[in-house]
Amino acid sequence: MTTTAATGTELSGSKASTLGANGGGDEPILDISDFSVVYRTDRGDVRAVDGVNLALHAGEVVGLAGESGSGKSTLAYGSCRLLRPPALITGGSVVYRGRRFPSGVEVLDKRPEELNVLRWREISIVFQSAMNALNPVLSVGDQILDVVEAHMKLSKDEAVERVASLLDFVSIPRDRMKSYPFELSGGMRQRVMIAMALATEPEIVIMDEPTTALDVVVQRDILAQIVELKERLSFAVLFITHDLSLLLELADRVAVMYAGKLVEIASSEEIHHEPAHPYTKGLLNSFPSLRGPRRELAGIPGTPPDLRNLPPGCSFLPRCPYGTTACQDIDMSLAKVATSADPDHVTACPFVLPGTPVPPRGTRSNGAPDGLQPEAISAQ
Amino acid sequence: MKAEEIAEPVQDGAVAIESPAAARGPLAMQAISLNKDFRLHRGEVLSAVRDVSFNLYRGAVVGLVGESGSGKSTVAKLLAGQERLTSGEVHLNGHPVALTDRRAFRQYKSEVQLVFQDPFSSLNPVHTVRYHLERPVKLHQNKRSKAELDPELTALMEQVRLTPASQFLAKFPHELSGGQRQRVSFARALAAQPSVLLADEPVSMLDVSIRLEMLNLLDDLRERFHLALLYITHDIASARYFSDEVLVMYAGQIVERGPAEELTQEPAHPYTQLLVASAPDPDNIGSILRSGGKRAARNVESAPRVTGACPFNPRCPFAQDRCRSEDPPLMRISSARAAACWRLDVAAPQLFHQSEGGVAHEGLGGPLV
Amino acid sequence: MAALMVDTGVTPPAEREREKRERFGWWRRLPPKAKVGALLLGFFVLIAIIGPTLAPYDPSYQNPNPSLSLNAPSAAHLLGTTQNGQDVLSQLLTGVRMTLELALFVGVVATVIAVIVGISAGFLGGMWDEVLSLLSNVFLVLPALPLLVVLLGYLPQKGETATILVLAFLGWPWGARVIRAQTLALRNRDFVAASRETGERGWHIIMFEIMPNEISLIAASFVGVVLYAIGASVALAFIGLADLNTWSLGTMLYWAQSDQALTLGAWWWFVPPGLLVALIGTGLVLLNFGIDELGNPRLRSGSGTIKVGGRWWGQTDPTPVLGHSQRRPSRVAAFLHSFSREALTERPTEVAGPLP
Amino acid sequence: MRFIVRRLAFYAVAAWVALTINFFIPRLMPGNAVEDIMSKFPSLQPSAYKALEAMLGVGHPGSLWHQYVNYLYDVIHFNFGTDVTEYPAKVSALLAQTVPWTITLVGTATIIAFVIGTGLGILAGWRSGGWLDRVLPGLTFLQAVPYFFLALILIELLALRAKIFPLGQGYAGGDIPGWNWQFISSAVYHSLLPAFTLIITNVAGWMLTMRNVMITTTGEDYVLAAQAKGLPHKRVVLGYAARNAILPQLSGFANALGFVVSGAIVMEIVFSYPGVGLLLVNAVTSNDYPLMQAIFLVITFAVLFANLIVDVVYVLIDPRARARSA
């Protein structure tokens, strides 16, 4: 395609309109179903992701929240088949339906060299630590150029021009193209990662805690930039973070993960006002707020379970303030929350309905489970 | 009205400002005009800490908030005696501290203990939990025999709620979760039976879900042992939750200080305002992030430090010529609050249109966002 | 040797296996390379200890009977005889002790110097570090063997002690360098600052906080020095710079070469000592790799692989999927695939997106 | 530039240390080296006694400091004195005859071994667990074989028995050294077996270290990122993994140069190769102290110079070192 001589190649803003035709359609752009990943170790399989169903629609921001070890990164990287041994995908399906693949591609069937067609061209990633994800001995311009040359048919000049305009896009001066990662500040490096992620105008961008390592002010700035770019280029975002409060501001929908399973999916408003799962409630209670009255908060006592050796029934039971013996028999499948305003609000906890107050703090001493508290349920 | 007219410069921050923490208990530690310069490779000097003064009181928490590189960890190391002061003084229980020899240092350590940020690196991987606790008990409580040690170790473990103690004492650090390790660090600090505890980002490396539990534990310990606690953090919301007084650091200086609630609800210094506006807020659904992300083009990359200017001026929306030529001192806003800014009258006008003590309650995010 | 490199990191062991594992825990946890190396070395150390008593003859005894000169291996002389009718096997059994003894002494002396220099440079820092690092770096770039040759060339008596001292004098810098680097890294770890918080003294921190974390590094540098000492002492003896009246593997090679053993076809005289040096060296190299692998399990052969669907998937392959047989196509198949309709539709055909 | 200056200063210090050691060795060693030489070489005129004393500094008038300064002055002017064995040949002339042989052979073989070893190491590390990786432990044997031992066996098999290669020497007996085809081809032919032995004993070491660095580098996030970017395989391996892994390998190369040269000395004895190694050993066996010391210095300076070149290459490859050196 030819471009105007004056501006060279530029990023498009028109994809939004092409998407408009099917943007509201029901078919998700990424459909993860029944997806499971284990890590094979000497001491048995670690079931890092267990039977997860998650759909991402075009132009949507889905937040994936959970503590470290909950499997959120494994889910995201696994769906691109970027996990390394001893990781093994034990089942499920990941179907990608993008602009160029309207009939859908099964990622798990792809041979190694076929995956390169999907990688970055369709799904790109912003890594957690830009310092580690950028090659220390290549200039940042060359690293973006690598992507452009691998996936797009452009002349050398056009490709370089595109890299420059990408840097413009994330407000980095063009002459920084020749800089090496160690010469940039943390915020700038993360912007370079974002520019690189957008270089081929992918339809999905996975963001793996892109701002966790940054100071709050810079973090805010970069998040705002991401949102702004998303509005212009309308890609879908899978945003992974342990910071639920951030997701509530940023995401359209939030999926909460615990011990390899999704325990709740709902719109941000719904998660914020009517969280259904005790774990989600606990997470929401883990953030002191700057606004509103100062209140006593408890967090979630205890530690996540050993993924090699999960308790029967609900894996959150040992830490759950509402748990009953009946929880040992549930299978943690997601079910609709009937009382919710969001028709797509699902949760893995069948016993707790939205609106249950969190029990007062102080009854528990340490991380060890205090035993079950059936009265919490009966109070409901 | 100029800022100086409404807010008088504070000559000696430690004395002239009433700390809200003073109500909790007697004065334990005074930091007086701490300065720390680091000599860089090419003969340049980095002023990591500049003229920092504050007091710690028994039973009270002072929160020290700042971004990475603001010098807040250096303050902790200076107070702990891990770094040498370039100038300034530290007073403990009214007496100036002089760490002249080994003995003086060890004696100081039984009064002042520092808890480190990273529980994965602050415990020696080759030693058991027992070793980590035994050493301070032996050195500071002079208990040597097993009969004396064991009850003490068990008591320590119970104080940080690692039970059954015998089971945890035999473990190596790699067998513990991050939260459990940090509990061991707390226990090790307590074993010296200190009166002052300096906690350098004690929860930032832990999972969100257990951070509050750890902060609550720290709070319990403060109450039980009547500790003077310095809580260093980059998270201003947790400082509000946890401390009596909050100090905000920027580029090695304290730019604002005041009672935690007042300071976070009505920040005076433009930097504090920026910090408060940037903190994630779940109540803020439909914030700038969701409404298309209108981004204020701010220069967030740190500009080179110019001496004799307000360090924040390159990023400040209120900066004037004076801010670029003269470094503002801490100026009193009310009896317990002070900020270092020439433009307070513009940055936080409502603070001065009210009678002293009365605090306006409309949010402040406006001018920056 | 390759057969021993069976991957242990993949199959989950049975319960009985686990019990055995606990009983011989430390040995089972060793990487296979370290096991082979340790076994090899153990064998030679045993020979060094009991070898001389097993020797059937006096290694120096020159049988005056000319028919016993350069005999091929036989029942009486299992490894044949030298030109002077000496028993090769007896010489070997004696020589292993001498060679290992010398290397051991060099290893101990050089490692002690390396530890002292490395830890003081890393821990004390400042001027100390500057001077000590400079010293070890200078000794590192000086070519050791020529200097050894010159030094020993001046010595009128080229005995064992002289060789040990000269070898140790030049053998410590490498170890000092890595120990210094490790000490520097450890010194900046919080646990060192934390023990200072506890009020520990400097020497206590060095001995009980830093040193225990460097055990594997110190072991590795000891093994490295021993390897260097064996190689250098054998080479020096081969040149003639040793006490040629004693029996070590090096002097055996010297006499075999100077009496033209190979040209005379007496392979039994020349090959065994060289082979033993190579085997001892192999043992040491394997042991060192084993130590490396203990510290960094990813270095184990095949540690980054997983077998799925009859194929090994490596670090850089896409994550395998159970039940899907995604065989890597041959080069030809990949070439043909690039012309298929599927491949053509998947090709990136678009250039940069349209202008807004 | 700062980096290069620092390194230059370091090599100057190293050279000075070598010179000083060289100066003090004859003074610290037991016995009178001059008497020793005089008694061994009856052909020496009594006038040579003074020259020897001057060179070795034994019994020389003047303070130690004075001798030291004179010694440094001589060395800087390439005046290594007179040789004893081939009296009155100049030591520097003998060095000029032998040094080119050694540098050509050892230099070429070392570089070839490094390149092949590093290349194989890249493959073994990238495909960790592949067949190349599995034969690796066997290669440690090659690394541990004494160089001269392997060389002698190869001479026996390939030169004496199979007669594929010449027995030794730098060139055929009848050739006259010069820039003509016959001589050059003869020299190359004679260097094949020594070079081959040097290469196979060194390749395994480079391969093993490169493999380990490569495995560590492959685990880095930027390599994963390169794969996620869907880059061609070749680009990921060479541009991202190997490009970074080569840096520690190069530092290792610099550190090992001294050892490589040491191995080459023994090699020259076995092959009767007309280089400095053979000259050194001959000097030692004939107690030719001045020559011994001069050779040690020459070898040391060659190693230091090679180190400097490796440093420059490192700076060219690593932008961080470049920034530090700016």
Task: Provide a compact summary of the structure.
The complex is a heterotetramer of chains A (380), B (369), C (356) and D (326). Helix content of chain A is 29%, strand content 19%.
Verbal overview:
- The complex is a heterotetramer of chains A (380), B (369), C (356) and D (326).
- Chain B contains 15 helices and twelve strands.
- By secondary structure, chain B is of the alpha/beta class.
- In chain B, the strands form two sheets. An eight-stranded mixed β-sheet of chain B has the order 6-7-8-3-9-10-12-11, with helices on both faces. In chain B, strands 2-1-4-5 form a four-stranded antiparallel β-sheet.
- In chain B, helix 9 (208-225) links the parallel strand 7 and strand 8.
- Chain B starts with a helix and ends in a 16-residue tail after the last helix.
- Helices cover 63% and strands 2% of the residues of chain C.
- Chain C has 15 helices and two strands.
- Chain C has helices spanning 15-23, 25-29, 32-54, 88-124, 126-141, 144-154, 160-171, 173-187, 190-198, 202-210, 215-239, 249-258, 267-295, 331-337, 341-346, and strands spanning 306-308, 311-313.
- Chain D is mostly helical and 326 residues long.
- Chain D has 13 helices and no strands.
- Chain D has helices spanning 2-28, 33-40, 47-56, 64-76, 91-126, 131-144, 147-161, 181-218, 221-228, 233-270, 276-285, 289-317, 319-325.
- The mean pLDDT of chain D is 81.
What does the largest sheet of chain C look like? 2 strands, antiparallel
Number of helices of chain A: 12
Provide the β-strand percentage band of chain C.
Answer: under 5%
How do the strands line up in the largest sheet of chain C?
A: 1-2
Strand content of the residues of chain A, in percent?
15-25%
> Which structural class do the helices and strands of chain A define?
alpha/beta
User: How many domains of chain C, as an integer?
Assistant: 1
Q: Briefly note the CATH topology name of chain C.
A: MetI-like fold
Fourth CATH level, the homologous superfamily of chain C: MetI-like
Q: What gross morphology of chain A would you assign?
A: globular
